[in-house]
Design goal:
Length: about 110
């Protein structure tokens, strides 16, 4: 039977293992740095897109408010009940004058 005499220097083996580990860590570090850079770029794009969306929404709301002011009736709905109360008081004053506010005294 043929036997091979194989001698491995422990220092060379340790150097090969350390080199492999170092190469793996450096490769992975580059990958992580690239991914982090891509994530930061995507986050900036999202923030910019959201800012543009908010600006457009603000402009839309301002335009909608202007259009509402132009097409609204003279008396807005929120003020109508207050003015109805004032109109009722004015009608009562016209009908009965100031005497209708006084209590009736019958003795």
């Amino acid at each position: 039977m043929i036997t091979f005499d194989l001698t491995i220097n422990i220092f060379i083996l340790l150097l090969i293992v350390c080199g492999s580990v170092l190469t793996g860590f450096l490769g992975r570090q580059r990958q992580l740095a690239r991914k982090t850079r891509q994530i930061a770029e995507l986050e900036r794009e999202m923030i910019q897109a959201h800012a543009e969306l908010l600006d457009m929404q603000k402009e839309f709301c301002e335009l909608e408010a202007r259009m509402k002011d132009l097409t609204s009736p003279v008396i807005p709905m929120k003020q109508a009940p207050k003015e109805e109360g004032l109109q009722k008081k004015q009608m009562e004053e016209r009908k009965g004058g100031l005497r209708s506010d006084r209590p009736n005294r019958t003795a």
